[in-house]
Each structure stands twice: as structure tokens, then as C-alpha cells.
Design goal:
Blueprint: E1 2-7, H1 11-22, E2 27-30, E3 44-45, H2 47-55, H3 59-62, E4 67-69, E5 71-76, E6 82-86, E7 99-101, H4 107-114, E8 120-121, E9 126-131, E10 135-139, E11 144-152, H5 160-163, E12 168-182, E13 196-200, E14 205-210, E15 215-221, H6 227-231, H7 233-243, E16 254-265, E17 269-270, E18 273-275, E19 281-282, H8 290-311, H9 315-336, H10 345-350, H11 354-364
Parallel strand pairs: 1-2, 1-11, 2-8, 5-13, 11-18
Antiparallel strand pairs: 3-7, 4-7, 5-6, 9-10, 10-11, 12-15, 12-16, 13-14, 14-15, 16-19, 17-18
Helix pairs in contact: 1-4, 1-8, 8-9
Length: 375
Amino acid sequence: MTDILIAGAGPVGLTLALALHRRGIDARVLEKREGLSTASRASTFHPPTLEALDELGVFAALRPGGVQVDRILWRRVDTGADATLDLGILGGETRFPFRWHREQHWLTPALLAALPAGTVRFGAGVATIEQGDGVTVTCEDGSTHRARYLIGCDGSSGAVRGLAGIAAETSDYAHRVLRLLTPLDLRDHVPGLDGLGYLYDADASCSLLRMPKVWRLIFRIPPEMSDEAAMAGDHARARIARVLPHLRDLPISGRDVYGVRKAMAVAYRAGRVLLAGDAAHLTNTRGGMNMNAGVHDAMTLAATLRRVLDDGDDQLLDAWAAARLATVREALLPRTDARVAGGDEVARMAALSPEQARNWAREASMLDIAKAGMP
Ligand SMILES: Cc1cc2nc3c(=O)[nH]c(=O)nc-3n(C[C@H](O)[C@H](O)[C@H](O)COP(=O)(O)OP(=O)(O)OC[C@H]3O[C@@H](n4cnc5c(N)ncnc54)[C@H](O)[C@@H]3O)c2cc1C
């Protein structure tokens, strides 16, 4: 019998597998796909996640070609007022006082390469679960596996949460997101911009994210607008013109639209089955936090499982599950909720005292919640 089975070879399942392996725990991963996903999803790594990946020895693989973001800019395009925040103010609290921008599909191969060969079984979607003095899992490829615990890291549409009988509270945000890519280096055209900027007026807003070879421009689109209409050239140009009038004709090298949902499993544990990552929580992409939170789930769970396997104190898992669930409900979901239109963030940011600015940066960087649930 394996100690730990993990469903899902996304960033969370693979981080958990490596963190367990580093602690001398036998872990196997069952992945439904035939290979790793290459979809364009998370772009932002926050300081505690960088610490975790560095501890696991994989941050070095993400460094070449990634973007270090030291400063955040807020600007009102109607008045020209602006505010900036230097993440260096977190220097006393973390070895990585910055954000790192890199696509998540660079992380998963780095994690896979650091695991012993054969840890991940591809083409093995979890299909059934039976619990007793261990967990027996059967997969779509006909294989059967047994372990002391099964961790569902199989994403928001994975099977494990439902098979374990855990319900979820789910809701869609009314808006969707239009993402445009440009190869133009916006730092040459937007004064004060480093790697992250929020431009807005009384009722429109745009986020600018510097990625290794392109900038992402992110706009909210209303529910009644179709994806095609949102991506059409005239709409895209009008949205750019509203926040960057001098760049209305900037080159666009890619565009897509995605919906945003929030969801939370009502429990993180049912017997010998636990959940982590998107299987347990799903948030708006605002603030770039959900994958980071999943990595924190994985790191705290690996430390907890080491203690459980050493001491046999199974109740530590209840404490871990309660702490992570409370973090999602009280911090992660509220922080990533959609910005309220009309709020003046420049004025709010400019009015912060140095201590308030440090607190803001700590929360935006997830330093205050990453270790919740650590035994
Ligand atoms: C456009 C976009 C931008 C984002 N930006 C950010 C960001 O900047 N920062 C951030 O922190 N987060 C961001 N996110 C969220 C982030 O992408 C997810 O939180 C992250 O992928 C979750 O990782 P995961 O491993 O939990 O799940 P997933 O990445 O969904 O991986 C789950 C894995 O489980 C597999 N699987 C499914 N069913 C089964 C089964 N039955 N058995 C076995 N395996 C199964 C899947 O094939 C998949 O490989 C963004 C998301 C989107 C869509």
C-alpha cells in the first residue's frame, strides 16, 4: 500500500508530491490526461510561493526568462493622479520581496522533473473511491491503487470531491474577462510602470501585467456581450483607447475571453480523502492568488501528513482542514472579489501610512495566510 495517492498532476498535485517526497513519504500521482497541461493560466507567483518552490529546489528552473515585479502602479486616467507601492518594503519578512511573473506551464514540468521517475501515472483519471482502513481507487484505465490517504488535487471539475461526498458552494461572477496580449514594452509608454499597473476612471478599468515576452491587458466585459464581440477589433481598440489613448493602435498579438467563478468545498476532508487547490477553492483571477493558495495548501498538508504518519495523530488533519477552509472563506475569497467600480484606489493607496502600506503588501503577497494550517 502506498502512503499517499494524489489525484491530478497540476501545479498543486505535483507540489504536494514533491513536498512529500522531500519528507521521505511515498506518494504517487494519478493524472487523467496523457501529459501535462500547457494551457495559459496563472502568471503570478507571490513571495511565500517563491519561498516554497525555492525550498523544494525548483525556483531556479523558473528564474531564467521570468519577470521580477518590484513595484505596483495605480493611475486614474481621467485625473492623472497616481500612486505606487514598492514591494521592497517586505524585505524584512521574506527573501523574495517581489512578484514573479511566469506562466504556470513552466512550473509543472520543473516539478515533474524533480520527482523520481514513475511517480506520475498519466492517462489514469480517478473513477471510483472506496474507503475502509485505507482508500482503494480505481482509474479509467482499469488500474487499481491502494493508499493510506487520497488527496484530490484534480481541479475544479475533478471527480474526487464528488466521489468523497463533499458538497461545494459555487457562484459565477457576472462579468467575464477579456485578455489582450501585446509585444510592445509598455514601460516605454506608461511613465512609472514596472511590471504591474492598474489604470482606471470612474467606471472603467484595465490591469497591465508584464510577462516574459508580452504584456497582458485585462479588461472586464459585461455579461450580455458575446466573446466574439468582446474580442472584435473595434471593441478591443475602444477599450484600449479609454485607458491608453496614445496607444490605441498598439500591436495585438493574442486575445481571449474567460469566465470567472468562485467556489469553496464545504469541507476539506471526508475520512481518508482530503482536498487541495482548485478542487477545494476557486476564485476570481484578481490578485493572482488561487494557484498560490493551492501551493500553500500543498506545503502545509505535506508537513501535516509527515506528523500524522510519524505520530498516528489523525486529528491533525482535521486541524489542517479547518485552518485552510477558514483561510479561504475569510481571506482568499474576499481579497479576490471583484473591485467595486467607482472606488478611488489611487486616493486609498496614496493615503496609506508606511505601516498600513506594509500591511497591504503583506496581504496582497499572501504572507499572512500562506502558513495557515502548518502543524
Ligand atoms: C486565465 C487564468 C489566469 C489565472 N491566473 C492566476 C494567477 O496569476 N495566479 C494564481 O495563483 N492563480 C491563477 N489562476 C488559477 C490557477 O490557474 C489555478 O488555481 C491552478 O491551475 C490550480 O492548480 P490545481 O493543480 O489545483 O488544478 P489544475 O491546474 O486544474 O490541475 C488539475 C489536474 O487534475 C487532472 N484531473 C482532472 N480530473 C481528474 C481525475 N478524475 N483524476 C485524475 N486527475 C484528474 C487535470 O487533468 C489536471 O491536470 C488563473 C486561472 C485562469 C483560468
